[in-house]
Amino acid sequence: MITSRGINGPNVMTAEWVMQISYQPMLIGAFIHEGSKTLKNIEKTKEFGINVASQKQTTAVNIAGGYSGIELDKLKIKSIFKFVKPQKIKTPLISGCTINAECKLVRKQKLGDHIMIVGKVVDIRHDDSKNPLIYHRGRYFGLGSTIEQDRVEVNVSEDMLEYFKNIAHEKFVVKCVGVIVESKNKILVISKSKTALNMIPFSIPPPGANQRDHLIEFLKHTGLEIQVSDIPIMKRLILKNGKNIQRINFVLFQGKNQKSTKVMKWTHSINDNLISTLI
Ligand SMILES: Cc1cc2nc3c(=O)[nH]c(=O)nc-3n(C[C@H](O)[C@H](O)[C@H](O)COP(=O)(O)O)c2cc1C
């Protein structure tokens, strides 16, 4: 709900086309139609309030969106709206919302049949105890259950899990890039130093690095002459040992071995849960 202030006092309108568009400075964009009283108010005062409705505010949202301030003084309707005092602007905020943001107008632009208004947030409050009201296909909803991500679970040894947990450095997901080289029903692996674990050749690229370029560099560095395909395969896994887990992404490329070296071994993939999931 966007609150604004005009010569006849404050007003509120409902808007679904509202979103945060910058962190620093914090900016919020809203798209409102030219006929609204809200736009006229904001053009005059250069400020507005963004009040993110909570699940108990369907009546307020319907009224703020169903009537114009030209037709009715919505904020004066008995027992619907309560106010929170603003800190940095003069426009009132609506009580009972999940977020109240006080905004100063920094940009106004006509885009298609709506006007974009961008507000710099000069004060913001968040009420953790309330959940936002969701508007979808003309109806109101509450927040639903968490959607579990589609990751394949792989049971691995304690050592293997420990190994990946160590390289994860407590990251929620480890992002690896690796190469699958198969020959005569066997797969190329290298031994991870300091452990007896065999794994396909893989590495963790730094953020922003191109995954395939990083893999090629890594293979060169390791002394492996492998020709890498250019079609990535994505495997999203949860490594599990008892209750211990580690989420891991593998971007994989098929590879062709050019020359055997000392670091290589060939293994039957069937003997290893993780490797057989990767290929
Ligand atoms: C759920 C809902 C979402 C709405 N979203 C928008 C929106 O994003 N932009 C807009 O211009 N109008 C939107 N409206 C319509 C305005 O709220 C409506 O035109 C209102 O009467 C304008 O009030 P005002 O003239 O007092 O400013 C929405 C209405 C509802 C019910």
Explain what the structure shows.
By secondary structure, this protein is an alpha+beta fold. Helix content is 17%, strand content 43%. The protein has helices at residues 37-45, 58-66, 158-168, 211-222, 273-278, and strands spanning 2-6, 9-13, 18-22, 27-33, 47-52, 83-84, 93-94, 99-111, 114-126, 134-136, 139-141, 152-155, 173-180, 182-183, 186-191, 198-199, 202-203, 225-228, 233-241, 244-259, 264-267. The chain has two domains: 2-141, Pnp Oxidase, Chain A (Roll), CATH 2.30.110; 152-278, Nucleoside Triphosphate Pyrophosphohydrolase. Flavin mononucleotide binds at residues 11, 13-17, 31-33, 36-38, 65, 67-70, 114, 135.
Chain-wise SSE layout:
Blueprint: E1 2-6, E2 9-13, E3 18-22, E4 27-33, H1 37-45, E5 47-52, H2 58-66, E6 83-84, E7 93-94, E8 99-111, E9 114-126, E10 134-136, E11 139-141, E12 152-155, H3 158-168, E13 173-180, E14 182-183, E15 186-191, E16 198-199, E17 202-203, H4 211-222, E18 225-228, E19 233-241, E20 244-259, E21 264-267, H5 273-278
Parallel strand pairs: 12-19, 13-20
Antiparallel strand pairs: 1-2, 1-5, 3-4, 4-9, 5-8, 6-7, 8-9, 10-11, 13-17, 14-15, 15-16, 15-21, 18-20, 19-20
Flavin mononucleotide is lined by residues 11, 13-17, 31-33, 36-38, 65, 67-70, 114, 135.
